[in-house]
Write a structure and sequence with these properties.
- By secondary structure, this protein is of the alpha+beta class.
- It has a single domain, classed as Alpha-Beta Plaits (2-Layer Sandwich).
- Helix content is 39%, strand content 27%.
- Strands 1-3-2-9-5-7-6-4 form an 8-stranded antiparallel barrel.
């Protein structure tokens, strides 16, 4: 929003600026006069403002809800329930941007899969959860009790800060996601991480210049809760790949890059926790 205001004010200043008129009348302008430079600048700024307005905004919060399989769980049953659930946000007027189910490629004592919700605003999140508790939760718990269970005590919210966006949009509805929980080393902080992100973005620019566009992108997730003492971290680095083949090729190039060693110099991160992700709801789809 701040950038948008600056661009808008720049356009206004350019449009209103110019030299003071001279006291003597000037010569008539040629019939086919070229456009004034100021007009071209205004057009460029106006276009930049429009692009800023049209650009998708990152969600205010992304929530991860732990789910556990019940006695009659199956992938088919989960698919049927997610299809049924996907009708609720639109019918209920929720301002939900996206929902997904993420299944881990590892065993966890805490959950069997994650239900992920991306909210455009905290107000939208609060309103939807209030509606869910009042109008949907009881029936949902009864409907799904033999398939899976969850608890509102295991809902974990993160504030995302997107990094480099994908150069080729993944429209398949599925992806490979991985989470790395990172704690800054002594004397390190956000500025160090942002410097590494700049290097990583430059690396991907060079990589894609040779290999072509990819669906790879990342975002930094800041916890909106107090992590457990046994698992303290400052942020969660989240990678998304279109598929395993893309993940393997990008990693191979990254591991051979000069900047790959810098990640561990700035922060101590866990090994990637890898998930298969499937979109189950998208606003406007």
């Amino acid at each position: 929003m701040k950038q948008l205001l600056i661009l808008t004010m720049t356009a206004l200043l350019v449009a209103c600026g110019g030299n003071e008129p001279e006291s003597e009348p000037s010569a008539p302008a040629p019939e086919a006069a070229a456009p004034a430079p100021e007009a071209a600048v205004v057009a460029e700024v106006t276009e930049a403002v429009q692009e800023a307005m049209d650009a998708p905004q990152p969600p205010a919060m992304v929530e991860f809800i732990w789910h556990s399989k019940a006695e009659n769980y199956s992938d088919e049953a989960l698919m049927a329930h997610t299809t049924a659930w996907a009708s609720i946000p639109g019918a209920s007027g929720w301002e939900l941007g996206l929902a997904a189910v993420m299944t881990p490629r590892f065993e966890s004592e805490d959950f069997d899969f994650l239900w992920v919700l991306a909210w455009p605003t905290l107000e939208a999140r609060d309103n939807a959860w209030a509606d869910w508790a009042e109008n949907h939760e009881a029936a949902w718990l009864e409907l799904t009790s033999n398939t899976f269970t969850y608890s509102v005590d295991n809902v974990y919210g993160f504030s995302p800060s997107p990094g480099r966006m994908p150069s080729a949009m993944n429209t398949s509805g599925t992806s490979v996601a991985e989470f790395l929980f990172c704690a800054y080393r002594e004397g390190m902080g956000d500025a160090n991480r942002q410097s590494f992100e700049a290097m990583h973005s430059a690396f991907m620019d060079a990589y894609e210049a040779e290999a072509g566009p990819t669906g790879y992108w990342w975002t930094i997730m800041s916890p909106q809760f107090e992590p457990q003492e046994s698992n303290m971290f400052n942020y969660m680095w989240t990678n998304f790949f279109a598929d395993d083949a893309e993940r393997d090729t990008v990693y191979a190039a990254y591991e051979a890059s000069e900047h790959s060693s810098q990640a561990e110099a700035d922060a101590e991160c866990t090994d990637p926790a890898v998930f298969d992700s499937r979109v189950i709801y998208r606003a406007g789809a």
